[in-house]
Write a structure and sequence with these properties.
Length: about 240
């Protein structure tokens, strides 16, 4: 892969598993990475490990995002910050949780895109944005009314942003991962009656790793993807194809 020498790449959600794996991969490839996330202690360890810079901000606050990004001269963005919310049906969802999931996963990513793209347009060097969506935006998953809705909104943000920013040679794409069996996801997907049934419907029949999500993200940022924009790329072991 190449093209990581064009300018800094911001990775939100870098204190989480996929975000941190993406930071490590990009830094190893020689990119200038700025990591953001909720857990500043994890960010500090990541900076020591990889040499990345850190800039935490609140994805629910437009002021926080604007203030954090106004002086950055960015070439790339990975919108990986997210909130899982709850496992609930439309009949019993907590609407306050729904609002928070939408606020972080869709509204927050849009605000990062809004202020990051201003820098990219001003610099006239083009750029690339990768939004970390989910298979939950492509198919209906039981209990995922809030999360799936937020990621479906994010996919539309991807498509519209790709259309609007293309004139500036800024590419915008989504990756749509399946489940990465982290501690956070294990409470639900780790139940045999749920996880085993799910995996039986997936051609590859296994959970994804964080590195298996980071690699396609890096590809979409690279020169190898220079003619790719506006796509939603499933990284799901074939689940949404069946």
């Amino acid at each position: 892969m190449s093209g990581f020498d064009k300018g800094p790449i911001l990775v939100t959600g870098a204190s989480g598993g996929i975000g941190a794996a993406t930071v490590r991969l990009l830094c190893n490839a020689g990119a200038d990475v700025i990591a953001s996330g909720r857990d500043t202690s994890v960010l500090a360890k990541l900076a020591t490990e990889t040499g990345c810079k850190t800039r935490p901000f609140d994805l629910e606050s437009e002021d926080s995002i604007r203030n954090a990004l106004h002086d950055l001269e960015l070439w790339g963005v990975v919108n990986c910050g997210g909130f899982g919310g709850e496992i609930a049906s439309p009949m019993d969802t907590d609407i306050d949780v729904f609002d928070k999931v939408i606020s972080i996963n869709a509204r927050g990513a849009l605000l990062v895109t809004k202020y990051a793209s201003q820098s990219m347009i001003r610099l006239k060097k083009g750029g690339a944005i990768v939004n970390v969506s989910s298979q939950a935006s492509l198919v209906a998953l039981k209990g995922h009314i809030s999360y799936g809705s937020s990621k479906a909104a994010l996919d539309n943000i991807t498509r519209v942003s790709a259309m609007e920013l293309g004139q500036y040679q800024i590419r915008v794409n989504s990756v749509n991962p399946t489940v990465v069996m982290t501690e956070m996801s294990a409470f639900y997907w780790g139940r045999p009656e749920i996880g085993d049934t799910f995996l039986s419907q997936m051609p590859l029949g296994r959970w994804a790793t964080e590195d298996e999500i980071a690699a396609p993200i890096a590809f979409l940022l690279s020169d190898g993807a220079s003619m790719i924009t506006g796509v939603t790329l499933p990284i799901d072991g074939g689940f949404t194809a069946c």
